[in-house]
Sequence to fold (394 residues):
Amino acid sequence: MFEALKPLPEDKILALMQKFREDPRETKIDLGVGVYKNASGVTPVMRAVKAAEKRIWEEETTKSYTGLAGEPAFLDAMISLVLGDAVARDTVAAAASPGGTGAVHHGFQMARLAKPDVRVFVSDPTWPNHLSILKFMGVETVPYRYFDSATGEVNFDGMIEDLGQAKTGDVILLHGCCHNPTGANLTLDQWQTVVETLLKTGAVPMIDIAYQGFGDGLEEDAAATRLVVSSVPETIVAASCSKNFGIYRERTGVLMAISHDTSKTAVNQQTLAFLNRQNFSFPPDHGARLVSTILGDAELRADWMAELEEVRLGMLGLREQLAGELARLSNSDRFAFLARHRGMFSRLGTSPEMVEKLRADHGIYMVGDSRMNIAGLNSQTVPILARAIIDAGI
Ligand code: LMR
Fold:
């Protein structure tokens, strides 16, 4: 039967990661996959994670199964981290998932279970794997305008006009903060307009929040998600712990289904647990246990927050340095958007040919749509990148 299998298109981000590994040039710069790196190019294990791991190793007495929806302490901690007190706890159903991607996948599955012909509105552009998963599932996608490459900002009027075309029961996929791949985000006022559009159309928001703490701060980055869940009757939220806890390979995420009608919460909870059981049975536990240990301990939590803040400020500093360097070399402010963007990524707004030229001539690796991982830079490589961008004529 395997002869029927055909080669699949490669995942562009992961293929780039491999190409970078194979490039022998010592001067190469990796601005590809969305993994945080410190100034020495290392993705560190966070201090609080190490301490929690030690504690778990000492105290854990069994590896028997946890709850089908995951450990309740983890779910409560994540609901509180993401949603704060925006909604009452009894409006929220939640299940642990293998990473934020697992939560995204389950979110789509939940929507399709509720509405087999569901359409999902996606920002143009969005994280390529959103599109790939939806295509794999056979779910129809409808793009909405989002990024304006001329300004490097959000095309907000276009976005709202397109979202206004949604119908009751459509799902609108939104990035809670730190838009991937563009780095361009809405203001809270603009989010309010999104909420009004959602209420007008009856479409259901699904928020993917994978970078909380990487933009303007832990609370600030959750503000839009909290506004939406408190204003709209039903919301799906997929959250990741990969980036803000730096536990990428532990695959730790959570899917939440919020319904203001609390009589729906039990069925929502049952549905999420059912989806876990059908897809992989029990969710991974180690990463979730690290997160609940850290968030449940005042000292570890404070240390984690402090380290996360260092990471965030480091990326902001690199953004400012890059925008400043480009302003100087180009004698213009056309790259000023790089300092205004938030999160790990910025879309430079150049052609795939230019991206390829940067790779071939300078060993600078960014995704073909000109998405750069800002955390792949350090203060020494920023001037090299800026010079290469200007020399390439971008
Ligand atoms: C990214 O966008 O680079 C990250 O979310 C990693 C991934 O899985 O693509």
Q: What stands out?
A: The CA atoms of residues 130 and 285 lie 24 Å apart. Residues 13, 33-34, 127, 129, 180 surround (2S)-2-hydroxybutanedioic acid (CB under 6 Å). The chain is about 45% helix and 15% strand.
